[in-house]
Amino acid sequence: MKPLTPLELDALEARLQHPIPTAYRELLTHTGAGEHGDVQVYHPLEIEEAYQYHFEEPEELFNTYFPFGCNQRSQEIWPGPVNTIFRVAKALAGVPI
What are the Knr4/Smi1-like domain coordinates in residue numbering (predicted)? Predict the structure, then answer.
């Protein structure tokens, strides 16, 4: 995983035409998007592409609850309450949860 810079995230927000949630933004700046062992953190464009047609307003997808990643082994998709994002970030960083 390659961490995304604040400038890259700003460009993504401009392309998406809505803000990326703060906790998800922090995760992307620390770990980046992609696979890390069994864990996959989705890139914002992957989320939008896969789920945008399920929402009347695209920015709703990036509100408090959205699918931001998954565990490939268990096939568990992580919906994005803020505490879940931080739990995953800690796991990726090797910090006990």
Answer: 3-69
